[in-house]
Design goal:
single chain; globular; mainly alpha
Length: 280
């Protein structure tokens, strides 16, 4: 009886601690979101989306930074996603038990957990120093290196969830392996793979360090990929540290925009994942 009471006490204690930890995490998250909304929503106006970043002490917008962030995020996604899907496909379909897959998985896990500032420093040494200047190309490559491991991991995991019976049934009809993968495996794992890409985009949307080392910033609207380009994370970093109230307000507004974007992408990824689970 004493042992039973002790176990029940430990169980209830752990449950209380778990609830306390969950409530603490939710409280901090709501506090951050509430602060962002409180400080950022006041600066939302038409000028934010139609004017470029202003000189010190002046009002303006962040159109050039929004444009630069969208361009470099799309570039990073376009570079990292195909390579990640192909690598994940090899690991799940062709080399499932080979030493090469083990090595690639190990390196991918290291890349997945590597600090983004290390990725930025690597691209700085390889591209910025070689080219002699900052550029949007370098920023896109840095973001691609952050997109890549997320896509590789999700693609491999989603393809491994596809039952081998589907592959065998398609192969029994005489379909070549590439057709089985493209028409059967990809279709069955599509929702999970798209979820992985959305999560990868959400991860790189707010990254500051890689862009600080590669694309830097630009006070003006620029479509030249071979030159520094404005972007939201670096604008937030620089404007938040400035002594000008107008710049600080724009930093809060830009942070709110990035947070809402990441939140929408995460909700979309969760919705796709839930839909896929219901189908299975």
């Amino acid at each position: 009886m004493a042992m039973y009471n002790r176990r029940r006490f430990v169980s209830r204690l752990l449950m209380v601690l778990s609830w306390a930890a969950a409530v603490s995490g939710m409280f901090v998250l709501l506090l951050i979101l509430g602060t962002l909304v409180y400080r950022g929503v006041g600066g939302l106006n038409l000028a934010v989306f139609t004017e470029n970043t202003p000189p010190p002490g002046s009002a303006g917008g962040i159109l050039n930074a929004i444009f630069g962030s969208v361009v470099m995020t799309l570039l990073g996604t376009a570079l990292g996603t195909p390579i990640g899907i192909l690598a994940g496909t090899y690991m799940a379909e062709y080399g499932r038990n080979t030493w090469l897959t083990t090595v690639v998985r190990f390196i991918n896990d290291i890349l997945l957990s590597a600090p983004s500032i290390v990725i930025g420093l690597f691209v700085y040494e390889v591209m910025v120093v070689t080219m002699g200047h900052f550029s949007a190309w370098a920023g896109g490559v840095a973001l691609a290196l952050l997109v890549l491991p997320v896509v590789v991991r999700t693609t491999e995991d989603m393809l491994l969830l596809v039952p081998d019976g589907l592959r065998e049934a398609a192969a029994a009809l005489g379909s070549p392996r590439w057709l089985v993968i493209s028409k059967v495996c990809y279709r069955a794992a599509k929702a999970g793979m798209v979820t992985g890409v959305l999560l990868a985009i959400a991860r790189v949307t707010g990254e500051t360090a890689p862009l600080l080392f590669t694309a830097l910033n630009n006070q003006f609207m620029s479509t030249n990929m071979n030159a520094p380009m404005a972007n939201l994370p670096v604008v937030i970093f620089q404007f938040a540290l400035s002594p000008y109230p107008e710049w600080q307000q724009l930093a809060w507004t830009a942070a709110l925009l990035i947070t809402m974007t990441v939140l929408i992408l995460n909700i979309g990824a969760r919705a796709l994942s839930t839909q896929n689970s219901k189908k299975n």
